[in-house]
Design goal:
- The protein has four helices and six strands, in the order βαβαβαβαββ.
- The chain is an alpha/beta fold.
- A six-stranded mixed beta sheet has the order 3-2-4-1-5-6.
- α3 crosses α4 (105-115).
- The longest helix has 15 residues, at 27-41.
- It is globular.
């Protein structure tokens, strides 16, 4: 199974009285989302399930892909890493899963998958971390397939 974690692109700073979920992307964030979407479109399998936070900034990031997606509270801001992995059906899902979400949840999941420790690893805005679960000689392994940032595209 492939699990692709994509942090939303750069968003506007929250304004006084504004709901955090209503923050949209900046112009730079829109460019970041478009660049990363172009990179992902070349690599995603046709059957990839896409799970997206209800936050506007994540919805806008997802729309850059031009594919249908499912909005889930399990990947909303402050969601737990366990909730994200359960929603993705890690590692049993027969299809690849792309999750568009937030820090610190994405960093916590990355740390768990690679180091089996509860640490808040930093994932840059707009970046993708691509993991693969595989079985080698009866031993389950997690492989980091790629890390890509929009600034390097």
């Amino acid at each position: 199974m492939d699990l692709i974690l994509w942090r939303h692109a750069e968003a506007h700073v929250i304004k006084e009285g504004q709901n955090d979920l209503d923050r949209g992307l900046t112009a730079k964030g829109e460019r970041q989302a478009a660049r990363m979407a172009d990179w992902l479109i070349q690599r995603l399998a046709p059957g990839t399930r896409i799970l997206v936070s209800p936050a506007v900034r994540c919805q806008q990031t997802a729309k850059a892909l031009g594919r249908s997606f499912k909005t889930l509270e399990a990947v909303a801001p402050d969601a737990s890493g366990d909730a994200l992995l359960k929603a993705a059906r890690w590692p049993e899902s027969p299809d690849p899963v792309l999750v568009i979400g937030h820090q610190p949840t994405l960093g916590l999941v990355a740390a768990y998958l690679l180091a089996d420790v509860p640490q808040e690893w930093s994932i840059r805005k707009g970046a993708v971390w691509w993991f693969r679960h595989r079985d080698r000689e009866g031993c389950a392994q997690v492989v980091l397939q790629a890390v890509q940032t929009p600034d390097c595209l």
